[in-house]
């Protein structure tokens, strides 16, 4: 995928990513901090995966989706952070046009699957709490695989649509991106041609691809809350809410940061806040998810202890 030349200017062949800080003296500290965050994220999510694989109690639909979510979290941070670390080491801040669009595609692909998987997890909780008698048939292994496959297909369509749309824009002037990875808002700011259709596409597709899953999540948990409040036992209510609390926390963080990032396209100037939200989307979310899901879950904690100690369960 190559940039289009213009009659009145030279096509941009590469972009310059300014990164998080422009002061060279701070680059070593940023490198160490983000390398540590990357290793913690990958290690944490691999631990969750290992716990799910070795603990028979975790061979359930909820943890099947959680395992897929851990893979996505590792993918999201791998798409952005290693390339940033490489630029810090080489002191080279340029990114080829094709590499920038490739990063954009894979980032939106993985985030899109993340969005749909969170919806599948909400549906799983709805069936488990509100339809317990038919749960095993409605959430069979076939249904689980179909939900994951549909998530990937929808996210692929979304990512490809935005990547192709951005490739039709002309970039012939400024090529400096005040960020540490390539994304739609930053590229819109640099385009020589009108981005109105691209922004309408982002809002329109975003409403369908993110708004619909969010509505399904909210609807699922309204039914879950009504069912839980109908449980007479205090212990039963506590157990039901504890299985949903972690997922709701992740959903709130995911959609909160995403809405802030993509609903501010009308802003004439991208600020430090955008970098902070970018860190939250690409680093903080994937790093926090293993902590959130294991913090109040004794089964996951027990499996993690066995993984760390090297005692594999054979039961």
Describe it for me?
The protein is mainly alpha-helical. Helix content is 73%, strand content 3%. It contains ten helices and three strands. The chain has helices at 27-54, 61-90, 97-130, 135-138, 141-167, 184-190, 196-229, 234-262, 272-295, 298-309; strands at 14-17, 94-96, 176-177. A three-stranded mixed sheet has the order 2-1-3. Helix 2 runs antiparallel to helix 3 (97-130), helix 3 (97-130) packs antiparallel against helix 8 (234-262) and helix 5 (141-167) runs antiparallel to helix 7 (196-229). The longest helix has 34 residues, at 97-130. It is globular. Keywords: Cell membrane, G-protein coupled receptor, Membrane, Olfaction, Receptor, Sensory transduction, Transducer, Transmembrane, Transmembrane helix. Belongs to the G-protein coupled receptor 1 family. Putative odorant or sperm cell receptor. It is found in: Cell membrane; Membrane.
| Percentage of residues in DSSP E strands | under 5%
**What sequence of helices (H) and strands (E) makes up the elements?**
EHHEHHHEHHHHH
Distance between the termini: 52 Å
* Count of extended strands: 3
Largest sheet: 3 strands, mixed
Q: How much is the radius of gyration in Å?
A: 21 Å
Shape verdict: globular
Structural class: mainly alpha
* Uncertain parts: 6-10
What percent of residues adopt helix (DSSP H or I)? over 70%
Query: What number is the mean pLDDT?
Result: 85
Biggest sheet: strands side by side, in what order?
Answer: 2-1-3
The helix tally amounts to: 10
């Amino acid at each position: 995928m190559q940039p289009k030349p213009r009659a009145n200017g030279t096509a941009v062949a590469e972009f310059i990513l300014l990164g998080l800080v422009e002061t060279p003296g701070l680059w070593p500290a940023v490198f160490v901090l983000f390398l540590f965050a990357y290793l913690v994220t990958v290690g944490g999510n691999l631990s969750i995966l290992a716990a799910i694989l070795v603990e028979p109690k975790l061979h359930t639909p909820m943890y099947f989706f959680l395992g897929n979510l851990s893979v996505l979290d590792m993918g999201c941070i791998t798409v952005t952070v290693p390339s940033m670390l490489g630029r810090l080491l080489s002191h080279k801040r340029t990114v080829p046009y094709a590499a920038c669009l490739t990063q954009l595609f894979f980032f939106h692909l993985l985030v899109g699957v993340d969005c749909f998987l969170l919806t599948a997890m909400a549906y799983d909780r709805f069936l488990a709490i509100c339809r317990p008698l038919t749960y095993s048939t409605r959430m069979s292994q076939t249904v689980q695989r179909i939900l994951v496959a549909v998530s990937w297909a929808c996210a692929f369509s979304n990512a490809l649509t935005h990547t192709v749309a951005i490739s039709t824009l002309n970039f012939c002037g400024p090529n400096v991106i005040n960020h540490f990875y390539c994304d739609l808002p930053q590229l819109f700011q640099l385009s020589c041609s009108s981005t109105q259709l691209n922004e309408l596409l982002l809002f329109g597709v975003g409403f369908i691809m993110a708004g619909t899953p969010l509505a399904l999540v909210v609807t699922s948990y309204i039914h879950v809350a009504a069912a839980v409040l109908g449980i007479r036992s205090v212990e039963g209510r506590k157990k039901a809410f504890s299985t949903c609390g972690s997922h709701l926390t992740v959903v709130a963080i995911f959609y909160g940061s995403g809405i802030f990032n993509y609903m501010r396209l009308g802003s004439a100037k991208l600020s430090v806040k955008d970098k902070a939200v970018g860190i939250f989307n690409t680093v903080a979310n994937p790093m926090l998810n293993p902590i959130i899901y294991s913090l109040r879950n004794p089964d996951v904690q027990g499996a993690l202890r066995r993984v760390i100690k090297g005692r594999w369960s054979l039961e």
